[in-house]
Amino acid sequence: MVVALIHSGEVNLTRWLPYLPSRGCYAQSKQRRVRRWLGNSRINIHKLYKPLIRAALADWQDECLYLSLDTSLFWDQYCLIRIAVVHRGRALPVAWRVLHHRSATVAFNDYKAVVNQAIQCVPTGVNVVLLADRGFAHPELMRALTQQWHSSYRIRLKKDTWVWRAGKGWTQLQDFHFNRGEALCFHTVRIHKDAWYGPVHLAVGRNNVNGEFWAIVSDEPTTLQTFCEYGLRFDIEESFLDDQSNGWNVQKSQIRSVCDLSRLWFILAIATLFVTAQGVQVVADKQRRWVDTHWFRGNSYFRIGWDWIKAAALNGWTIVQNITFSSHRDPDPAIVSQKHQEGHAYRFEFKVFTYAYESG
To answer: 329, 301 in Cβ contact below 8 A?
Structure first.
């Protein structure tokens, strides 16, 4: 099924048929075989995937590993909760859950097990930092990360979040006044007035280009680096795009079952690991321009690896044998075009004001 997905380029069981080996001669028999596998409740895809992703991350060289948590809604019926490891402009799937849920907003109990699964797949001795958007600013998550999973977090807060400072009382984030290009760092404060949680640390600021408001809560003292770390979260959105129009075209799937979709994303996850590892190897071997028409690297490792594998069968090219990832840093960042690069070469400058309070 992974081979069929890569060669057909989309989640379409009918188009998979030429690539599925089977003793049966009829196409309908092959299709039913795949449907039975996807609907087989005895197949524990998380138990199958865990040793694969652990082996892929076993040689991680960075002291820190960033996990991005996010949700995506499909057909206004199903919500995919995914945790992925940030890797060179993309995010590699680590753990996921599919819910029959009409909203992308989920409760802590809905994704607690997903976070636990992801933490278990991380190599020992590596510091884990969870990155999440405003919908995950739950005190239960922050408490579990620091106390149960011994991990850090960088989570964005909503403007109307209440913040308590010793000697200042409660104030909403939207009531802090500062200019574009300025950032406020608050150390040892509390958040959430109704059921407060703390002490935590905040970094609050506005982008000096578009003025967008950012407020990041962290378990560690905040600096400008906190904004950079949180910015890595957006790499998972590129991976959601790879699942859809930029890659596997899962939106074309006719599968409408929570369990079947969960197993389908198992196939997508393996294929994503495979083509990404191939892309990294192709670039490392300086063979990128065999499949990438750009003078500088213009395609993602995902796309480079995918194009290489599809062409390898015709040209006799080597296919990667070991799937391993070692760092989130990209030594050769993608450039869509020189004009595009120059147009986005913004210079970010901030004036930082830091305030430390007693935990009291």
So the answer is: no
